[in-house]
Each structure stands twice: as structure tokens, then as C-alpha cells.
What does this fold into?
Amino acid sequence: MTAAGMRHTLILGGARSGKSALAERLADDCGLAVTYVATAQAGDGEMAARIVHHRARRPPHWACIEEPLALVEVLREHAAAERCLLVDCLTLWLSNLLADPDPRRQQRECEALSALLPSLPGRVLLVGNEVGLGVVPMGELSRRFVDEAGRLHQALAARCDQVLFVAAGLPMALKGTCP
It folds into this structure.
């Protein structure tokens, strides 16, 4: 990958850290057509309000695909040299997969995403919540979620050109350079 517009970037941070705003700025600044891939589902009023907030701050000329499960298919279908795909967020996608009745789907989908990423043309911005910085959760499902999110982020970080961590709205480069 020779051009800045061809980079794949993983952006991690805590809730309300500024990671989505950073991803949106990077997408807007890259000069490519942007397709925003939203993985959230409005299961309650608070999540519905978050979705409305995210929609309101996106430029109207960006395309948007709302897909809670089939992320790999969406990326395969929409990646192009002249396009930036912004995925927000990986951890909501993972939560959706963990709720799937097929217990193996989550592993298959995460492995497929990791395998697909290096071959995707254009720019890909992946946003995820870093959830492994606190205490070990008490519940089994919570511990599994933290473990699976950590595994997913590690696999994707190994395949991305740039990995950023955002805290208090400030990006830090973990891999590559800081914007």
C-alpha cells in the first residue's frame, strides 16, 4: 500500500473517548467516497438515541449501510480503490454475533474478517471499544465478551497499517503514525 488513502486503520478507545469522531474526521479528510457501515441495533431507547446522534453528525453525502451481522459480506461487496469504508463499531458487531443462536458463528465471522482485511482495496477504518483495561468482569458472558473482543482486536491490529488508541479525544499511535 503506497498511498495514504489505501491504509487500513483500527481505532480503539473507551466509551465516549472520541474514537468515532476521529474515524469520521479521517474518513472525511481522505478524499474518497465514504460508506459508513453501522453495526448497532436499536434494542432500547438509549441505543436508539446513540444511533440518532451518530446519524446527525455524519455528512449527508456519505452512504450508509446498517448491518448488525453480515459485516464480512458488506466489506467484500463495497470495498473499492476509490472508497473509504468506516465500520462503527466492531464491538457492537461482536455483541450481535455472541447473541446468535449458532455458537460457532462468532468465531467463523471474526476469522473471516481477519482473513479478508488485507485483500480489501481502498481505505478501511475500523472502530472498536477497548474493554480490557478494567477489572475482570464477574459474569461468564461478560468475561467471554472481553476475551473475544481482545482476540478480535489483536488479530485485526496485526493486519492493519495503523492502530490508534483514543483517550479524552486525543489519538495515540500504537502502530504507524498519529494523524
